[in-house]
Amino acid sequence: MMTLYDYLPSQNAYKVRLLLSHLDLPYRTEMVSIFEGAGQHPDYLAINPTGAVPALQLEDGRVLAESNAILTYLATGTPYLPSDAFAAAKVQQWMSFEQDYVLNIASLRHWTMTGKLARRPAALVEMRRAGGLRALQILERELAQRPFICGDSYTIADISLFAYTHRADEAGLPLREFPHVCAWLERIRAQAGFYAEHHPYAIDPHSSAELP
């Protein structure tokens, strides 16, 4: 059985849980206490050199880290990743967008929910806020044209983008001002096997640990 190395409040780990739920695949969970330093333990660094979650250990012992890489592996040969080369590349295009643009929402949310926002330089906070709004604006424009980010079908690109976008209000961003994004979020929630469970942060705001 596969093993998912997880930290429940991590939305990067949530991406993998969501796809596993859609696929109805069995797996076991190994919790990694990121904020207590478990990610930097030598045993875990042998699994994921960055010390972050998620990581997925396959039945044969091989390990994959980085959420979007794990999504790609799990979705190969399923409806969540097209077999057509161009369509598959479009999925990767939007997963790259998630890493480059939606990361702003992720960072801002993390600082807000862990009490670190006031400790960040105002210019950096404003840069992240502007970047997060830019991500939402781009998604709003694109999702006005089609039901899912790559077209008519729900793919791992939607799963990747959903993870932090649907928590944008926790970053202090006005999610309700983007109606096409909100409608897309509801379409995702309506998918068979949707994983709805949410786990808030419960850590010391004075911790120096960063986004898992």
Describe the structure using short key phrases.
single chain; about 210 residues; alpha+beta; Glutaredoxin; Glutathione S-transferase Yfyf (Class Pi), Chain A, domain 2; 2 domains; 4-stranded mixed beta sheet; about 45% helix; disordered C terminus; Glutathione-S-Trfase_C_sf; transferase; Glutathione_S-Trfase_N; transferase activity
Characterize the structure shown:
- Residues 1-82 form the GST N-terminal domain.
- It holds the Pfam family GST_C_2.
- The chain is α+β, with helices and mostly antiparallel strands and 212 residues long.
- The chain has two domains: 3-78 and 196-203, 3-Layer(aba) Sandwich (Glutaredoxin); 85-190, Up-down Bundle (Glutathione S-transferase Yfyf (Class Pi), Chain A, domain 2).
- The chain is 46% helix and 8% strand.
- The chain has seven helices and four strands; from the N terminus they run βαβαββααααα.
- The chain has helices spanning 11-23, 42-45, 67-75, 85-113, 122-143, 156-165, 179-189, and strands spanning 2-6, 27-31, 55-57, 63-65.
- Strands 2-1-3-4 form a four-stranded mixed beta sheet, covered by helices on one side.
- Helix 1 packs parallel to helix 3 (67-75), helix 1 packs across helix 6 (156-165) and helix 4 runs parallel beside helix 6 (156-165).
- The longest helix has 29 residues, at 85-113.
- The protein is globular, with a radius of gyration of 17 Å.
- The relative contact order is 0.16.
- Mean pLDDT is 93; it is low at 203-212.
Outline:
The chain is built from 7 helices and 4 strands, in the order βαβαββααααα.
Radius of gyration: 17 Å
**Total number of strands:** 4
Strand order of the largest sheet: 2-1-3-4
User: What is the CATH C level class of the largest domain, in words?
Assistant: Mainly Alpha
Termini Cα gap: 24 Å
Helix share bin? 40-55%
The CATH architecture of the largest domain = Up-down Bundle
Using the coordinates shown, work out and report the CATH topology of the largest domain.
Glutathione S-transferase Yfyf (Class Pi), Chain A, domain 2
Helix and strand element order = EHEHEEHHHHH
Largest sheet: 4 strands, mixed
Q: How confident overall, as mean pLDDT?
A: 93
Structural class: alpha+beta
Tell me the number of helical segments per DSSP (H or I, 4 or more residues long).
7
Percent of residues in β-strands? 5-15%
Stretches where pLDDT is under 50 for at least 5 consecutive residues are 203-212
- What is the number of independent domains? 2
Multimerization state:
single chain
Identify the overall geometry: globular
